[in-house]
Amino acid sequence: MSVNVRLSKKVGHGVGGGRTARASRCVTRAAANRPMWLNGAKAPAHLNGTIPGDYGFDPLGLGTNPDRLKWYQEAELMNGRFAMLGAAGIMGAEILGVNGKELTWYQAGAKEYDIPLLPLIAIQAAVMGFLEMKRYQGYKDKGVTGVFNDFPFDPAGMLSEEMKVKEVKNARLAMVAMFGFTGQAAVTGAGPVENLKSHLSNPFGNNIINSVLTIQDKLPDPGFAKTTAVQAVVDAAADAAVLTQ
């Protein structure tokens, strides 16, 4: 009987070992076939492909700490979601002509609106502060955030792995787009749609290369900023003198 027990253990160990070996080979094969940020690149050990949108890119080793890696993942999603909203708002307002020809997206904050600015900032700070607090609490308690995580009903499949990957991809694209929108506005003083129309009308004349080469001609006089700053100090001193009289 003891012989049979030992034999069964050996057989069981052999079967289990075979399964483990096959599983290991499958994981290795999947890791070898996974898309990478660069052909031939090797992913670091802490990026094993389990995170949505993981392409093995971490040259500085920022994600070696598992807890920090989760936080970086959450930070990327949060900033990406803001960027997606911002990019859609910038392009949507320009396409629909909401801003008007005299107002670009980066000048919207300087425009006078029917609602006073300070109460608007106070309301926004209170609402966003509450939502951010709930978001952080959800992350600390559950490790995930988002509206859909609180609802078990998901007929559209928004919590599927495919949708998570799509969200990360679009978030990264939107962050790059916002960087481009800001650079375009600083150089050309126009919005993305207007810049696109300008490029399509004259591709060889209106492009990033010519913009970089002629950026010095588009900048204000070098003494402009200094003169403005000095004038601002003088005006402030004059106002203070008037108030003290």
TrEMBL record:
Principal location class: plastid
Amino acids binding chlorophyll a: 76, 166-167, 170, 172, 184, 199
Residues where chlorophyll b binds: 81
Location within or outside the cell: Plastid, Chloroplast thylakoid membrane
Pfam families cross-referenced by the UniProt entry: Chloroa_b-bind (PF00504)
Keyword list, A-Z: Chlorophyll, Chloroplast, Chromophore, Photosynthesis, Photosystem I, Photosystem II, Plastid, Thylakoid
GO terms under biological process: photosynthesis, light harvesting
GO molecular function: chlorophyll binding
SUPFAM superfamilies: Chlorophyll a-b binding protein
GO cellular component: chloroplast thylakoid membrane; photosystem I; photosystem II
UniProt similarity note: Belongs to the light-harvesting chlorophyll a/b-binding (LHC) protein family.
Role this protein plays: The light-harvesting complex (LHC) functions as a light receptor, it captures and delivers excitation energy to photosystems with which it is closely associated.
Name listed for the protein in its UniProt record: Chlorophyll a-b binding protein, chloroplastic
